[in-house]
Design a protein that fits this description.
Helix content: 40-55%
Structural class: alpha/beta
Distance between the termini: 67 Å
Strand content: 15-25%
Bound molecules: S-adenosylmethionine
Number of helices: 13
Shape: elongated
Largest sheet: 8 strands, mixed
Number of strands: 10
Order of helices and strands: HHHHHEEHHEHEHEEHHHEHEEE
Length: 294
């Protein structure tokens, strides 16, 4: 069987088994099994597959059809323009989490708008040159590594309760050339020192809502990354109390929330905080709750 025929038959099988984006998935799987980029498939579509290559493709197809997420099969996911290595020990980074990165950059004045302000001779927002940033529940390290790379001079630290996740995050920091200090810890318990930003995308699905998750997510992504304790606000309360002790006055806490949780989380901020506008995603869903410590 040549590449063209293999792609056709793989896409047909994926479609029959209700796998979304069947043709694209077939291309990604075949390219992965041949260790080539997708473009290669079109330039060499008459190349006949060897027996071992056909078998490798067959194994990948079986995994995908049984529900293993494509990202775990190929071992990577894009986040804020960079590829992060992912394994079943970490949550697959989601596009909506990029809003945390965007919001930190906006608060620092690292946006197009603030560049325009500067060109017009207006004073940009004053921000510490080497901000100290802490990411709680870092998973693949996508937020911490991205902030370390986007903010030159930033001192970035990241924690997770899962040592297996931290191992993946460390690998990502090394391969992407970011300097991040990683610590195994329960929320903020192990940390001392002062920070300008604390960011977190904590687990926020209630165990009772398990059946609402897509099967693929429920069966393959780490439960410690998905499920909160029965009281899904508990981790947010701990983050807020911990941040009160660790943030510099004027420092910011940014937290991703699940659908419909933004108001309840916003109400947890008491007198010591100035609540800023929650960021919504492209569908208008409130996603990133932001507050400034007074
Ligand atoms: C929703 S995932 C977020 C991962 C990554 N930051 C991202 O946005 O893709 C939540 C992460 O929090 C970690 N976690 C869960 N409970 C924790 C706790 N009590 N203390 C620290 N980390 C925790 C999980 O291991 C997981 O990596």
């Amino acid at each position: 069987m040549n590449i063209r025929e293999a792609l056709h038959s793989a896409a047909e099988r994926l479609e029959l088994n209700h796998v979304s984006n069947a043709r694209l998935t077939a291309e990604v799987l075949l390219a992965h099994s041949l260790s080539v980029e997708r473009e290669y498939l079109y330039a060499h579509d008459n190349r006949v597959l060897r027996e071992d290559e056909s078998r490798a493709l067959e194994d990948l197809l079986r995994d995908r059809i049984s529900g293993v997420p494509l990202q775990y099969i190929v071992g990577r996911q894009e986040f804020y323009g960079r590829y992060f290595h992912v394994t079943p020990a970490v949550l697959i980074p989601r596009p909506e989490t990029e809003y945390i990165v965007e919001a930190v950059l906006e608060i620092r004045g690292q946006t197009l708008f603030s560049a325009t302000q500067e060109n017009l001779g207006l004073a940009p927002n004053f921000q510490a040159a080497s901000p100290r940033i802490l990411d709680v529940g870092t998973g693949s390290g996508c937020i911490a590594v991205t902030l370390a790379l986007e903010i030159p001079g930033a001192q970035v630290f990241a924690g997770d309760i899962s040592e297996a996740a931290l191992q993946v995050a460390r690998e990502n920091a090394v391969s992407l050339g970011a300097t991040v200090g990683f610590v195994c810890m329960d929320v903020l318990d192990a940390f001392t020192g002062r920070f300008d930003f604390i960011v977190s995308n904590p687990p926020y699905v209630r165990p009772g809502d398990n059946s609402r998750l897509q099967r693929e997510v429920r069966e393959h992504e780490p439960h410690v990354a998905l499920f909160s304790p029965e009281d899904e606000l508990a981790i947010y309360r701990r983050l807020i109390t911990g941040a009160e002790a660790l943030l510099e006055p004027g420092g910011h806490l940014l937290m991703e929330v699940g659908i419909g949780m933004d108001e309840r989380v916003s109400e947890l901020f008491k007198a010591r905080w100035e609540k800023l506008e929650t960021k919504t995603d492209l569908q208008g869903i409130p996603r990133t709750v932001i507050a400034k410590l007074l």
